[in-house]
Design brief:
Elements: E1 10-11, E2 16-18, E3 23-25, E4 33-35, E5 50-53, H1 55-64, E6 73-75, E7 81-84, E8 87-93, E9 101-107, E10 110-114, E11 136-141, H2 153-157, E12 166-170, H3 176-187, E13 192-195, H4 197-209, E14 217-218, H5 221-225, E15 231-235, H6 237-242, E16 249-254, E17 266-268, H7 276-286, E18 290-296, H8 299-304, E19 310-313
Parallel strand pairs: 3-4, 4-5, 5-6, 10-11, 11-18, 12-15, 12-16, 13-14, 13-15, 16-17, 18-19
Antiparallel strand pairs: 1-2, 2-3, 7-8, 8-9, 9-10
Helix pairs in contact: 1-4
């Protein structure tokens, strides 16, 4: 194997830059060439001269950015390889949301794997994560902490069962809301799912592009107030926070973050990221020689692999 290049991918003020292929990954400001791992707002931005992403990612971006220039888009299918400069790039499913991709980059015989956001837990609404070998794993470390354990999602959803009230369920509009809808449809069929108008178009896209038919209706005040108290109303975070005094509903927020569970009526620990156990499993399967951490704190991974693996934060551009 050739030498691992410490500066193969570096972090700068715009995003993650690869000078060997002259492209960015998940750039936050317009650049010439940008690979987009998935459609969440902290990864996907508009205005780049050339964008590379999956078809689902572009569909969600078009919903958010109606004026997006279509001829700037390069749709990449999972498992196919394309090249930017001398860097050969392959997308693999990340299991985070529909269309989310890991980005495997090969240069001079060395494989660098950028995970984007990813999860290993089962999710019927998106492609399951694919495990592939790499020499360098560039991993998100949102919950890379031995104290963090994500419980079984089915047990969490069943916390909503037999509650004698309608429920207002806060969650992110893209990915989390659709996963929750599928879980409620399957495990709580007696419950009717109402979705906030900001989620409605995304739910429709999931039904067009995804793997699971979702049953839901658009929220209206009358439906929530009238009839039986069997409704779960999915709302985005800003709406959830603005309804902190909402009456005649139980409040829950689906997240892996403990701080977002405080002051709610029901704790609902459902995350779309890997926890400590899953990140260790993933590392074992990827079998890297080095780990570069992004999006979080890598100190616990560094301590865990001390003397066995090089673990460090991704380098900043100089």
């Amino acid at each position: 194997m050739n030498e691992i290049l410490d500066d193969f991918l570096v972090r700068d003020d715009i995003g993650y830059y690869c000078r060997y292929g002259n492209f960015y990954i998940d750039a936050m400001h317009p650049v010439a060439k940008n690979i987009i791992s998935h459609a969440h707002g902290d990864h996907a931005t508009n205005g780049h001269q050339k964008m590379y992403a999956t078809a689902a990612t572009f569909a969600f971006m078009k919903n958010k950015f109606p004026k997006m220039v279509v001829n700037s888009l390069e749709v990449i299918t999972f498992g196919s390889t394309f090249s930017l400069g001398d860097v050969h790039i392959t997308f693999f499913p990340a299991g985070h949301i529909l269309g989310s991709a890991q980005v495997l980059m090969e240069y001079q015989g060395v494989k660098y794997l950028y995970t984007g956001d990813y999860k290993l837990q089962e999710d019927a609404t998106c492609e399951p994560v694919v495990l592939s070998k790499a020499d360098v794993l560039i991993t998100e470390s949102t919950f890379a902490n031995p104290a963090v354990f994500h419980p079984d999602v089915k047990k969490e959803i069943l916390k909503l069962k037999d509650k004698p009230s309608n429920i207002m369920l806060g969650c992110y509009a893209l990915g989390k809301a659709q996963r929750l809808t599928a879980l409620i449809n399957d495990l709580l069929p007696e419950r009717e799912v109402l979705v906030h108008h900001k989620m409605y178009a995304v739910h429709k896209l999931y039904n067009e592009l995804g793997y699971k038919a979702l049953r839901y209706t658009l929220y209206n005040r009358k439906a929530m107030k009238d009839g039986s108290t069997n409704k779960i109303y999915l709302v985005p975070p800003l709406t959830f926070n603005s309804y902190f005094k909402a009456k005649n509903v139980l409040r829950a927020f689906a997240s892996g973050w403990e701080r977002l569970q405080k002051q709610n009526d029901i704790e609902l620990y459902i995350s779309d990221h890997v926890d400590w156990k899953d990140i260790l499993y993933f590392i074992d399967k990827v079998h890297p020689k080095q780990i570069w951490t992004i999006h979080g704190d890598g100190k616990y991974l560094k301590k865990h692999f001390d003397g066995k693996l090089i673990v460090r934060d991704i380098l900043s551009a100089t």
